[in-house]
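Take a record.
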Amino acid sequence: MVKYYYQKRDETFIRNAFIDVEFKKSTDNTLENIEQLLEELKKVKAQHYGEDNEEQEPGLRCIATPVYDRFGTIIAGISISFPTIRFDEESMSHYVDLLHQAGRKISEELGYKKYPIKE
């Protein structure tokens, strides 16, 4: 039987993973350092989705939700990207809901039945 071991992704793990990363500013919204990244990750964890709001390229936005394996570990994400001229802030919750539906379905196919966001 194969056993799976996942290292906890706590602050120490994240700091070590990014120790040699140089944060290069692409836009005014780009995260500039590990402290900003850690703050953003707290927000992502709390709201259960992440977004790129023109952080990499002006005029481009992305929203992503998690996909879990059968052990309840996040192993992937599912996302949509679109130009900001086609984005309406009022549609945000609808897009997030659609992504959670897809993330839940994929997670269930992988054996995880406790997706944290309800339909």
